């Protein structure tokens, strides 16, 4: 009997999992210095089927001539055609702790007037870092993921044919030196600064290790000293910190996008007692013309065009809804939906409530 009851309880737990809003520290903060670095380079894509840059693109011609001369050939610049060649910018991210010989993805974008990069191959392109040094070299066939074809009168295009990717298309040649074991303490930077969140993180770390090793510096940073018994196993120490769960706090905020009618509200949005009424006034004005002319066999008179204007004004019924003080986001949504407000109406309503001083949240309009 006890075994059957235990089995039933386990099944209920699987069917109705406990909801949790906690997040791992590794999803909330990063170690200072452990980050990606941007790389960029200029190159040529060859092998295009007449969809490359036109002859008016001077830098493509100059780049092709320079490359051919470096390969030992003498080229007459006036006879160079670049219809099958496109000048491109190559960008990539160098991940932290990337070692020489590892591969990274690259993004290739046309900078001339090429029509398409489909079927092209990127020639060897050095990728420079912010310090001007070469950290990787890219080369390989492009994966564009688009189609573009047509004639003089019509054209069919899907996605963007002048941008492509090369998975694992660059080889790392230089490493970014960062030795994490040389530091006696770890500096964590929060992705979303918040005093409450950083305080919860320090408490979780100190509680886990049983000593005061973490302390907050400000709303965006935290200092974690390395415990004595983890001096020789720093990776294990960091892994334990990363997997500690903390419930992040966030401010009350409403994001609205008037172009798309999108509204996003946080769970901490609260309002004071306020009455909301919303209605739309529609005014339709139509112009028409009628012809007035004299009857048959009339001795005098002329045909005249008489304009006619018809105006119709309709106003939708506005329901007055009272929103009580301190209601949650769910109650706010239900109350506003009760008056039949559309997303664009809700944007105007939130702006009006904010102007009235009854909305206790930050309203950000994109």
In words, what does this structure look like?
By secondary structure, the chain is an alpha+beta fold. It has three domains: 37-172, no CATH class; 180-246; 254-285 and 314-365, no CATH class. Helix content is 20%, strand content 37%. It has six helices and 23 strands. It has helices at residues 2-15, 58-70, 195-209, 234-242, 329-338, 343-355; strands at residues 23-24, 29-31, 37-46, 85-94, 103-110, 121-128, 134-141, 147-150, 155-158, 163-172, 185-190, 214-216, 221-225, 245-246, 253-257, 262-265, 270-271, 274-278, 281-292, 304-315, 319-323, 359-360, 362-365. The chain has a six-stranded antiparallel β-barrel. The chain has a four-stranded antiparallel sheet with strand order 2-11-13-12, covered by helices on one side. A hairpin with a 4-residue loop joins strand 12 (214-216) and strand 13 (221-225). The longest helix has 15 residues, at 195-209. It is flat. Residues 1-19 and 281-285 have low confidence and may be disordered.
């Amino acid at each position: 009997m006890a075994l059957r009851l235990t089995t039933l309880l386990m099944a209920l737990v699987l069917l109705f999992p406990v909801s949790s809003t906690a997040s791992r520290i590794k999803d909330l903060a990063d170690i200072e210095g452990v980050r990606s670095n941007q790389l960029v380079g200029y190159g040529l894509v060859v092998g295009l089927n007449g969809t490359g840059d036109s002859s008016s693109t001077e830098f493509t011609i100059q780049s092709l001539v320079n490359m051919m001369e470096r390969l030992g050939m003498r080229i007459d610049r006036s006879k160079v055609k670049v219809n099958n060649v496109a000048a491109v910018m190559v960008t990539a991210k160098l991940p932290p702790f990337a070692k020489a010989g590892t591969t990274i993805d690259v993004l290739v974008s046309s900078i001339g007037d090429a029509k398409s990069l489909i079927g092209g191959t990127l020639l060897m392109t050095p990728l420079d870092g912010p310090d001007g040094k070469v950290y990787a070299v890219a080369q390989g066939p492009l994966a564009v993921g688009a189609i573009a074809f047509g004639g003089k009168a019509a054209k069919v295009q899907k996605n963007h044919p002048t941008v492509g990717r090369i998975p694992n298309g660059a080889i790392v040649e230089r490493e970014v030196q960062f030795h994490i074991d040389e530091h006696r303490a770890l500096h964590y930077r929060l992705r979303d600064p918040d005093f409450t969140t950083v305080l919860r993180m320090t408490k979780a770390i100190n509680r886990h290790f049983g000593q005061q090793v973490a302390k907050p510096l400000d709303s965006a940073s935290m200092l974690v000293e390395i415990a004595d018994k983890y001096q020789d196993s720093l990776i294990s120490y960091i892994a334990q910190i990363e997997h500690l769960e903390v419930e992040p706090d966030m401010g009350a905020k409403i994001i609205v996008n008037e172009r798309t009618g999108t509204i996003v509200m946080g769970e901490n949005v609260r309002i004071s007692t306020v009455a909301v009424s919303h209605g739309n006034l529609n005014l339709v004005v139509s112009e028409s013309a009628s012809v007035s002319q004299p009857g048959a066999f009339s001795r005098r008179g002329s045909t005249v065009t008489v304009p006619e204007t018809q105006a119709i004004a309709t106003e939708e019924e506005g329901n007055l809804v009272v929103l009580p003080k301190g209601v949650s986001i769910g109650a706010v949504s239900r109350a506003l939906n009760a008056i039949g407000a559309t997303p664009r109406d809700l944007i105007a309503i939130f702006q009006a409530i904010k102007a009235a001083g009854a909305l206790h949240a930050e309203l950000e309009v994109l």
